[in-house]
Amino acid sequence: MKKTCETILECIGETPLLRLGRLKKDLGFDGDIYAKLDHLNPSFSKKDRIALGMVEAAERSGALKEGMPVIEMTSGNTGTGVALVCSAKGYRFICVMSVGNSVERVRMIRAFGGEVVLVDQAPGAVRGKVTGADLELVEQETERIVRETGGCFLNQFANAGNSLAQEQTAREIWGQSGGAVDAFADFVGTGGTFAGCAKGFKDIRQELHCYVVEPKGYAYYGGEVGAGGPGHRIQGGGYAKEMPLITPGLIDGCVSVSDEEAMGMTRALARVEGVFAGFSSGANIAAAVRLLKGQEKGRGIAVVINDCGLKYMSTDLY
Ligand SMILES: Cc1ncc(COP(=O)(O)O)c(C=O)c1O
Known about the structure:
With 318 residues, the chain is an alpha/beta fold. The protein has 9 helices and 12 strands. Strands 1-2-12-7-8-11 form a 6-stranded mixed beta sheet.
């Protein structure tokens, strides 16, 4: 057990790893799913890791100096992570996000003392379904705020500190599982978790298979993009466009998951395993189950539990 922490930042990472034995019995797949419980981080998502990584990298490089505001665009979890880090370090934080994301994240960011700028969705978009078009609007507004304030823009979509922080997640999973991982499946937003973990795993074991997980109909890497569709419900990613952090050599395969599969599996995870997570964690588990019933039969698959179910109480997930 860790000794007394001097700041909340020392409580980030080193989360438990859970083998999903009860789900295995229920669903009858052959092999094991190792779930990294990153919803147990201090602001209840995996993004606390990259928030700390990116802010400290900006401090080291001189891009972030005392008195400067920190600026980030986010679907919410990076925002809560950066808000937490800025609270603990004493920076002003301006967070730009789409109004289509859940309201819990906005309230959390404000609770940490962050300022939230909400950007309207593209014409015809649906609340709770954030698309690539919505993200472009968020990007434009962020650029305007960066120009006006002269703040330090972290830009998780292109910041190497994002994937670098997630390499550590892979090393933790490998160590905790005793090297029992043969494959990794991850729902992609910025691609930072996928790219970082894939690199971390492949540095240890080159032949470990890494699968990109995307929403059905919005699978850019899976080659089934449904341009102009009504959007999907798996908050935190599935933007159906190329992500700069993902380099092609890291991808061994792609799995696409429907809203219904993701939601059904998220609910099953809570009911059967006591893991209270959000939509994208269910997407990861649904993908892992499909792989264990197919080409990864009998093997060990690692996934990340991305965030906590409490962030979705305003939706119909639970
Ligand atoms: C809930 C959730 N799941 C998945 C992702 C995607 O993670 P990444 O940006 O590392 O691809 C995010 C990103 O914000 C997220 O908030």
